[in-house]
Amino acid sequence: MASLGRASAIIGAGTMFSRVTGLIRSIVLVAVIGSYSSRAADAFTVAATLPTNVYELLAAGVITGIIVPQIVKAAAHTDGGSRYVSKLLTLGTVVLIAATAVMMALAPVLVWIYAPDWEPEQRALSIAFAYWLLPQLLFYGIFALLGEVLNARKVFGPYSWAPTVNNLISIVGFGAFLAVFGGPFTELSDWDAPKIALLGGTATLGIAMQTVVLLFFWKRTKLHVRPDFRWRGIGLRHIGTLAWWTFLAVVVGQLAGIVQSQVVTRASGEASVTVMVYAWLIFMLPHSIVAMSISTTYFTRLAEDVAAGRLDRVGPNLDESIRAIAVFGFGFTAAIAAASVPITRVFTASAEGAVAMAWVLCAYLLALVPFGVLVVLRRGFFAFQDTRTPFIFSFVQATLAALGAVIAVVAVNLGALPLGFLAAAVALAQSLSTYVQLPLALRLLRRHTDTRALHATWRALGRFALAAVPAFAAGWGVFLLLGGVDGWTTSDRFLGIAGGALVGGASLLVYAGALALLRAPELSIATGVVRRVLGR
């Protein structure tokens, strides 16, 4: 347990630092191209979505879910798994090069799919950005492959710290853009070839360099890797069977994402796709720091237990990881919701834009805790090498999310919903679909393991939810005392940071106090994790 705590602290600290620098990167990017009501920013966002969507397919599904258990098994080979990993990395690189080439050839079609209602000028700008950004797919994929091999060999730190390199390079590059050209350039006519090249090239260079950084830590894996095109014996048929269902799950998720994009891009010029991306970025900050760091380390142990037949440890493992994630998740939900307007002011040029983004952010926050729990459960299925069942509950969630987006746009067309709230409605539909997905996943998990160990988990989550209520009320009260929407916390980006820290800090203090009054044993675990992360 102590080793898991240290590993989680290393990952959490690295993720926190990379996310903080990522926020700075986003602030500089907003200074370059804007966010709320910026058609140019929407064009850039759609182009940037193309490589990241495929990366999510690889990182969340095929690589994390399937390859890690295979590498854990290969460690028992006489060479420690070196030949297996050599074949795996060679195959993965070949596939990634081919996929990147195909996507670049289809760039105009892909942009049209995600934003069919755009005028030719906006679509042309997005396509131009796409040609500079799509090579990121190759580097994202190799980064995920190398990173998960490091994780499987219990070298946890580099994978979580490496994105900081990307952020620093982007900050410098975007800063150079501002020094040369100024900004923000929010109109489509503002953009020419040099501006597009500098912005897009900087973004892709950062992703490439974060991949190169991982190579400096490869010796720690004690694996001797070389190109190996003899893929016979790697278990492609077995991996293919597992990957097929994961691929289908991601396909339905991507289809739902396309429906959401097609709906939300209709509001370009108001709260549209860029606003949703920044709201999602804020949502993912606590999720990445807490849920991903904890679930990554627990997943390695879970895969080892399943491989060794120690099935009696599966339930307690899931219980520990879900509690550790949820005790933070409820606190961050209350704090970020209370401070949503000051926080979003950081990514917009006006209080009006901050309020519009805050609605979207709060809609996403409703699902912060179940989203983290689902990460744990999904990896539980992957540890049993079951990718078919996650497809079932992922299909249900994606269908409901897409249906919710369609209902939202119909409501706009009928005049029942203002166009400015379309993005928030789409985000809300996605969050609500998660509450259907979670109980379904829990029920299906019973096919593999005894879930009675999770009964105490749900009682613990009830305590956290109870403590979150006064925490949000306290934070919202502080926000109102500071002037609310018309106060100083929304008058400037940097004052938004200060205001968000005050409001969010008040919420977290009350949350910790409420947990103490409820005598929640998880409070001591949470404070221990915080101390380890800060120490790292």
Write the layout of secondary structure elements.
Layout (H helix, E strand, L loop, with lengths): L1 H32 L5 H36 L7 H24 L1 H8 L5 H14 L2 H17 L4 H5 L1 H19 L11 H23 L20 H29 L8 H35 L6 H25 L1 H6 L5 H15 L2 H16 L4 H26 L8 H24 L9 H27 L11 H25 L4 H14 L1
Subcellular location: Cell membrane
Organism: Microbacterium flavum
Pfam family, one: MurJ
Protein model, in words:
The chain has 536 residues and is mainly alpha-helical. It has two domains: 1-234, no CATH class; 251-536, no CATH class. It is 78% helix and 0% strand. It is built from 20 helices and no strands. Helix 12 runs parallel beside helix 18. The radius of gyration is 23 Å and the shape is globular. The model has no long low-confidence stretch (mean pLDDT 84).
What's the domain count? Answer: 2
DSSP helix fraction: over 70%
Distance between the termini: 18 Å
Count the strands?
0
Strand content: under 5%
Unreliable segments of 5+ consecutive residues? none
**What general outline do the C-alpha atoms trace?**
globular
- What is the ordering of alpha helices and beta strands? HHHHHHHHHHHHHHHHHHHH
Structural class determined from secondary elements: mainly alpha
Structure annotation, total helices: 20
Main β-sheet, in a few words?
none
Oligomer: single chain
Q: Any idea what the radius of gyration is?
A: 23 Å
Average the pLDDT over all residues and give the rounded result: 84
Keywords: Cell membrane, Cell shape, Membrane, Peptidoglycan synthesis, Transmembrane, Transmembrane helix
Organism: Microbacterium flavum
Main location: membrane
Membrane topology: Multi-pass membrane protein
